[in-house]
# Entry
Amino acid sequence: MKRAFVLILCGVAFIFASCNRNKQQQGNTIENTTTSGVITICVDETLKPIIEEEIEVFEGLYPKANIIPKYTSEVTAFNKLFADSVKLIVATRSLTDEEIQSLQANNLYPKVSKIAIDGVALITNRNNPDSLVTLDQLRDIFTGKITKWNQLNPKSRMGDLEVVFDNTNSSTVRYVIENINKGQELTGNIKATHDNEGVIDYVSKVPNAIGVIGSNWIGNQSDTTNLSFNDLIQVMLVSADPIAFNGNSYQPFQAYLAMQIYPLSREIYMICTSNRNSLPYGFTSFVSSDKGQRIILKSGILPAKQPLRVVNVRENL
# Structure
């Protein structure tokens, strides 16, 4: 009787093992098409919120598609692409001519698709009364010439100024060096957390900090109008003029990105080195399509192709 029981258990175990093996084999044999298969992609971590939304909708429409995102620094994402470790990355810059030639030399022919425009946002603690800054002042902050809040506002009592990035290899660091510092390296009281959530958390707790972050991280998810920001922090108004005041300073709202009056905007790209009949290509095409662009529109950043209607409301007509 005991032996029979053991044999039955062995038989059940064999059946379960066979079933699991068959499932694994089926998973491994899913045809790689534009709407099916399994892929890993690398995504600049500053773009995580919007790409998570795109993947969720895409996989809902195409159940045989499994997209595994790896959220990394911009430097890591490009290194993975050049090493052919991934066939698709999402980043805030395109390829240089030299990079395209290098990929082509390895029989990799990239398709570069501009999918959106977002802003680099400057966030501060909710208890910080200073909310205006010029590009010139930002350059002085990022190059170590301005180190205290009272250099921005003589009445400020916030003390030393701390600047917080998500990662030393992030796209926001590159953006600041190239577009604000005009090539000068970052100096001064600069810190880096592990990711963008860390920047928000740090700034929400440290009254004298300025956080540098992608604008798709700061939206108020409960506000479908995209006219407010995360309640944990406040967002600075930035002016391209020599002196900042409310009338010439802007936050990274969708309309201001569309009107090109927010000074710190950047383009978002999907770079694919796979063939036209593959899942990486299919996902890129989806994000660039009307449906994918509408997801971006609802997120609060600016889609590359979906038109945005900006309405000026005048009072007392």
